[in-house]
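User: Fold this one for me? It's DUF1194 domain-containing protein.
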Amino acid sequence: MSRRLVLGSALAAPLILRTGSARAQEPVDVELVLAVDVSRSVDEIEQELQFNGYAAAFRDPKLLEGIAGGPLGQIAVTMFTWSDWHIQEMMVPWMKIDGPAAGERFAAAVDAAPRRTWLYTSISGAMDYASKLFGQGYEGTRKVVDISGDGVNNSGRPVADARAEALEKGIVLNGLAVLDRTPTPWAAGLPPLDDYYRTEVIGGPGAFLMVAEGFEAFETAVKRKIIREIASVPAPGPLVERVYA
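Assistant: Here's what I get for DUF1194 domain-containing protein.
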């Protein structure tokens, strides 16, 4: 009897662990990953505009109303910065946003996050890193990666490969392209950034591109973008939206 009891317990243990793991995933309307470019083309002022834009978005009553209007009334959000193929840094771990207090906690965490600048621009590295972040305590009806940046991929593996793998996992890739009109020597001969993001970066059901015409337009662009992303039933909208300062 004792041997059968031990054997039965051993066989049941994996089932208990799997059941416990499944129960640990809290349902949310959307799991949203914010991936923020901090390569060398983003100077200190521009980086601050990005961070301030994300913080302001989660203090915005319209965004919080949008979250409350979802079937579950809550989303999960995390934010990291990216640059070279091997450089991704977590800024804000997964947080549940279900009202103004939670929105303020997320915004405060963004305010307090370190500001660091690196060298290259690896959108593929950002996609690969983001794809591994889902399912960590939350289970969303949709999985969305929001990639913001001001340059094309110049580090790491081809974007097409990383994009294809993300789409196979059911992840929606949205883009926020920042058009910096300041002339830079390394931009010569490169395709227009908005065209590049539209054809090479975004993908998945309902994917879209928000274009900020300069970093001064970033805050407005990111608010509009996240409000559209968290909609429980995303309304048909333009593939590309533009925001001016």
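One thing worth pointing out: The first strand starts at residue 26 and ends at 37.
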